[in-house]
Design brief:
Helices cover about 10% and strands about 40% of the residues. The protein is built from two helices and twelve strands; from the N terminus they run αββββββαββββββ.
C-alpha cells in the first residue's frame, strides 16, 4: 500500500513552483497618461517571429485595474542590487520613503532607468485566465543596461544572485528550424 499524496493547496503549489528559478522584473504600464508598475517573476518569451513576451498580473492587483485600458508597457529586468525596487513595486515596502528610482521615456511609455534590460511592448492579446490575466505583448524595442550584467534571481521564496563560476554556454537556437521530433521510450 502506498501512502496517499499530500493534498493540493495554494501554499504547496507555490512552494513547488518556487523551485523554478526566475529573474525578477518590474512591469511599467501605461493607460492614457497614467503610469503604474508591479513586480513580476512570471515573465516568459512566447515567440521569436513575431517577437512576443508575456506576463501574468493577479486580478486583485492595482495593475489589474488598468488591464483593459493598457496602451503599452515595459518589462524591466532587475539587477542583483535592485532587490529594494522589487519589494517596493510588489507592495511590501515598509519604509517611509521609497527606494530611489526613476522612469525615463521609452517607445511604449516608460522604462525603469538603471535596470539590467528593458523590453518595450504594446498589448497583443489579453486573456482572462483563472485568478490572473495573461498579457501577451508585441516587442517593439529593446534596451540593455551597462555591464556587469548580474540579474536579481528568485528561487524558493528568496532573492538570490547568480554565480558565474559554474556556467557553461547554452546552444544558440535563434536560427535553428524545427527539427523532426525524437522519441525516446522505455520498453
Amino acid at each position: 500500500m502506498t501512502a496517499s499524496p499530500a493534498p493540493l493547496d495554494a501554499r504547496r503549489y507555490r512552494d513547488t513552483v518556487g523551485m523554478f528559478a526566475t529573474g525578477v522584473a518590474v512591469i511599467a504600464g501605461h493607460a492614457g497618461d497614467e503610469l503604474f508598475a508591479m513586480t513580476a517573476n512570471a515573465v516568459m518569451s512566447v515567440s521569436l517571429d513575431p517577437m512576443l513576451i508575456a506576463f501574468c498580473p493577479g486580478k486583485k492587483t492595482n495593475f489589474a485595474t488598468h488591464v483593459q485600458r493598457l496602451s503599452g508597457f515595459s518589462i524591466n529586468l532587475l539587477r542583483e542590487d535592485q532587490q529594494a525596487l522589487s519589494t517596493y513595486f510588489a507592495g511590501g515596502w515598509k519604509e517611509a520613503t521609497p527606494p530611489p528610482f526613476r522612469f525615463v521615456a521609452s517607445r511604449c511609455g516608460s522604462r525603469l532607468e538603471g535596470c539590467l534590460a528593458s523590453i518595450d511592448c504594446e498589448p497583443e492579446r489579453i486573456v482572462d485566465i483563472g485568478d490572473h490575466w495573461l498579457i501577451i505583448g508585441r516587442v517593439l524595442d529593446l534596451h540593455t543596461g551597462i555591464a556587469p550584467h548580474r540579474p536579481l534571481m528568485f528561487f524558493g521564496g528568496r532573492y538570490r544572485s547568480m554565480q558565474d563560476a559554474h556556467s557553461a554556454p547554452a546552444p544558440d537556437l535563434v536560427n535553428v528550424h524545427d527539427e523532426p521530433a525524437q522519441i525516446f521510450y522505455d520498453q
